[in-house]
Amino acid sequence: MSTFQAKDQNFESKIRERLSGQHFMHLMGFDITTILAGEVTGEMKLEQKHLQQYGFVHGGVTATILDITMGFAAYSLMPLGKGVVTANISVDYLHPGDGDRIIAVGSVEKPGGKMVFTSGKVYIEKNGVRKLIASARAVMAVIESKIDS
Amino acid sequence: MSTFQAKDQNFESKIRERLSGQHFMHLMGFDITTILAGEVTGEMKLEQKHLQQYGFVHGGVTATILDITMGFAAYSLMPLGKGVVTANISVDYLHPGDGDRIIAVGSVEKPGGKMVFTSGKVYIEKNGVRKLIASARAVMAVIESKIDS
Amino acid sequence: MSTFQAKDQNFESKIRERLSGQHFMHLMGFDITTILAGEVTGEMKLEQKHLQQYGFVHGGVTATILDITMGFAAYSLMPLGKGVVTANISVDYLHPGDGDRIIAVGSVEKPGGKMVFTSGKVYIEKNGVRKLIASARAVMAVIESKIDS
Amino acid sequence: MSTFQAKDQNFESKIRERLSGQHFMHLMGFDITTILAGEVTGEMKLEQKHLQQYGFVHGGVTATILDITMGFAAYSLMPLGKGVVTANISVDYLHPGDGDRIIAVGSVEKPGGKMVFTSGKVYIEKNGVRKLIASARAVMAVIESKIDS
After folding, report:
1. What is the CATH number of the domain that holds A128?
2. Which residues of C touch A132 (CB under 8 A)?
3. Is C133 exposed, middle or buried, given 0-12, 13-18 or 19+ CB atoms closer than 10 A?
């Protein structure tokens, strides 16, 4: 649950607009479901295209949906004219991902004018049971951005 | 340049076989170009589907091709019956990725029977000039694996 | 709050014994205050010897007390004959550390027979107010250990 | 070997001055031996005070000397009035540290006005043989700093 104040009250519609340019997210089929100030959640149905050779969800899928949700969580707190890019992401893979749906939650831990510290979790749902499969942290760098004005 | 001895001399053909199950890699369009004992390289042409809202290569693309090349670099040193899965990956994004082709090189830094330490680099080629855009490290966990027997 | 079951019921006294060999911890003056199955807490009074050139707590101090508490949190769940060593630690420094006391809490996120995933937090107390200054994650490798038998 | 240009030609003497405030470094007994633009090396004799319960160098010692050398490598490229603090450090422990001397080398990978990306290596010398025991990466945040003017 987010406890942060957005500086731009239109943060939700601004994020919705940015999603149209998230081409790689669309290639995967991932959707953003909830946008709060400092916390963004998304999910998708797992399909064969998301897997690696052992039949589990690809580590790149997990890293990508973490990057997206943590990035937009940081972006939700930006004032007009500022965007964010990932400086560092670190992902721990706790369990192999095997299931029907995959959910990612990105949260701001500490906002800032130059960098934003975020954390993220990825869950798999299988037969109605949700399981944590990855935990992550990312440092997001704040940038000047014309398209975010 | 790799300085490691493979334990399974068929490592290259074994990796080529595993690639057929790398569904997410195929969705992206990434190809493995060079397989050495302890070092694996791949590349792809950058297209709109790989980008994010600022027009740069998506951080998830970069993380994915690092995960693939570092994972197969570790796998190239495994004996028969052993595979690897990523335990932790950490990626530093040095520059925004803007160009024609993207290249990833994954290298083993220290092999082991339980875990393998690897490092990786991602380069962008634009108008014939190659530039380093990301540096990464990953800890790969060794697993028992029937399909690798 | 820990939700794990210890495999060796003497885990607390076993950890107390191991502390005598933690020479670098004693050089710093850090004390372990609470030992639960899967969660270990420690603290110390901040003194000049713990600082860097800007007058803040040294990043190495923060990393060390995270390594100690996360390592012993993992160790608390080990059966007889097994120990742990750090494979990877990643620390995010959220705020400069300036205060009277420093507290570290290490927690197991996911136990395992080959590796244990842990997380950690460091707090500073200043004039009775506690503030989170660092968040960390570590992968601990399980080792065979004679002294832990 | 460094390939960067310092913005303040007095970077070496400025770093030598800053070392007096590195209280925790002095507690450990670590010395900076070589200061280049973008690369800083240091070392110390290993003593019992640096060890953990298995008789190996403490992970906190390794993390601390990486933090110091990577931090000063970044600082060596700062103009007057700017300093650096660690935002994130990630350390991979490749081998247990057992030997006579320990050496850390911190290098800038990519300088910048807001953040500096660095990498580091730690070596142990035992009976005249040098061995790599840890590899690290750190993101350093650039700060305004009165004492660096």
Report:
1. 3.10.129.10
2. 110
3. buried
